[in-house]
Write a structure and sequence with these properties.
nine-stranded antiparallel β-sheet; 3 domains; Jelly Rolls; alpha+beta; about 400 residues; about 45% helix; 9 strands
């Protein structure tokens, strides 16, 4: 318990000190390269330097953050997550930094600065900002519906499109997030206001564990696997559970038109996919191919969630390419949650969080999804109440 309280207090202090450290800068004309080494070697040490001032002026906030940190760490214990001391230190740093990013901390480049992105890192650029790939490989990041203009050849760009070296990309969308990401490393010239996000790490073990207690999310045999991308098959299975039709899918005896599904648990993948295809819930990627291991994007999974809530993209309730933003408009998640989730790569951690939030959202017919699932026998009211009282930490 003493170790827990020390860790929790450290996290709280770092979060508090973050607000006082914004003036630390970086990315100026004399120091044009902004990397995570700047954060680790300069920003984090300054957190500790600001400890006394932050604590003395914000004692109530410190206590609240300490309690919040304890709940997070208790959730890690409850879900049997094993983290060594070094890994926990890194998680504390990551959580503190991401809280800073979530709260809207942006660097400003009045003239082009060179941003070096390591593998897995992401750049987010505010409206009016410009990006130009100098070296390495990168793709446009953010939301598929975000407007990014290729000024060089006067075309529109979209998330997952490979960036061309030397081409000027301008972010013109005032509502949706856009930027660049790299899997192997890249250097990008940036003008305007921007963020550099570290490689994604899990933040929502508590939501995954709550879903696990309800039978909605299951482990991978090696834990929840929250740090990796969700697959098309996993996204579909989660949808069927949230739609209350998993039992019907497992009882399916009809044909499945896809030949690339994995073999496990007495053919369950063929039952899930065959059933969903027969109901018109999903389609393949090509003739005979479902591509079960391809990653699920935020747009794909939020489309599944909105369908589980009774909304239809075919009927015009929303556009699949804008599904995350439609989830805000329809009251499933908040603006803050939307920005925090879509600014990073969509992994199982994010899938767990938005799935948990969907349980308390209203369906198109006015029924709350959790009530619908209790009525369908997916879980009981007592189980859901226990999961809610377990204290899932919400963003914002």
């Amino acid at each position: 318990m003493a170790l827990k309280r020390f860790i929790a207090a450290s996290l709280a202090v770092m979060l508090l000190a973050a607000a006082a450290s914004i003036a630390a800068g970086g990315g100026t004309g004399s120091d044009p390269v902004v990397t995570l080494s700047y954060i680790e070697n300069k920003m984090i040490p300054q957190f500790n330097a600001n400890l006394s001032a932050a604590a003395s002026s914000a004692e109530p906030r410190l206590a609240a953050l300490r309690d919040e940190a304890l709940r997070v760490i208790d959730g890690m214990d409850a879900s049997s997550v094993q983290i060594n001391s070094s890994g926990l230190d890194r998680q504390i740093e990551y959580e503190a930094y991401m809280r800073l990013m979530d709260d809207g901390y942006l660097l400003t480049a009045a003239s082009p600065v060179s941003v070096k992105l390591a593998a897995g890192e992401r750049l987010i650029v505010a409206t009016g900002g410009e990006m130009r790939l100098v070296s390495g490989a990168a793709t446009l990041a953010g939301e598929r519906a975000a407007e990014v203009v290729n000024v060089t050849d006067a075309s529109l760009g979209y998330a997952s499109l490979a960036m061309k070296t030397g081409v000027r990309y301008v972010v013109t969308d005032s509502e949706r997030l856009a930027g660049a990401e790299t899997a192997s490393g890249a250097t990008v010239l940036v003008t305007g206001r921007y963020q550099v996000l570290p490689a994604v790490r899990p933040r929502h073990t508590d939501a995954a564990f709550a879903l696990y207690t309800l039978g909605v999310m299951r482990g991978t045999g090696k834990g929840f696997g929250l740090g990796r991308s969700a697959t098309r098959l996993e996204g579909l299975v989660m949808f069927l559970r949230l739609f209350g039709e998993e039992d019907e899918a497992l009882a399916y005896t009809g044909d499945c038109p896809f030949t690339d599904l994995p073999e496990w648990n007495a053919g369950e993948p063929e039952k899930y996919v065959g059933y969903a295809y027969s109901k018109g819930y999903t389609e393949g990627t090509s003739t005979g191919k479902f591509s079960p291991n391809l990653p699920v994007t935020a747009e794909m999974y939020m489309t599944f969630l909105l369908r589980a809530l009774g909304y239809s993209d075919n009927a015009g309730d929303f556009d699949w390419a804008d599904a995350p933003y439609a989830a805000v408009r329809l009251g499933v998640i908040t603006d803050f949650e939307h920005d925090s989730i879509v600014r990073q790569s969509f992994i199982r951690d994010a899938m767990a969080y938005v799935s948990w939030r969907a349980l308390s959202a209203k369906c198109k017919n006015g029924t709350v999804l959790s009530e619908k699932l209790m009525g369908a026998g997916v879980f009981t009211e007592r189980q859901y109440t226990a999961a809610v009282n377990g204290g899932v930490r919400l963003l914002g």
